[in-house]
Amino acid sequence: MGGLLFVWLTADENAVRERLEARQRQGHLLKEPFGMYLAMKKSLNPCDEADIQFENSEPLDASYRRLTELIRTRPH
Fold first, then answer.
1. Residues 10 and 54: beta-carbon distance below 8 Å
2. Quick one: how far is CA 34 from the chain centroid?
3. Please, which residues have CB within 8 angstroms of residue 15's CB and are 6 or more apart in sequence?
4. Is pTM beyond 0.70 here?
C-alpha cells in the first residue's frame, strides 16, 4: 500500500458538537453522540508521534483540501 501515514485530527469542541448534532438520526442507538465524544476524549491522549497533526474545525471540503495538500507536500 505504499506505507503508513498517521494523522492526528483535532477539532474545536463547538465544531464537533455541531457536526454530531447535524448527523443525528431518528431511532439511532447512540442517543447522545456529543456525550460519547466527551467520554472517548477522556481516554485519548494527544499523540506526539503522528506524521501530521491537523486541526479540523473548518467545513469538511476546506479541511479535506488542506489535509490533502499537507499529505501531498510532506517530505518522504
1. yes
2. 13
3. 56, 57
4. no
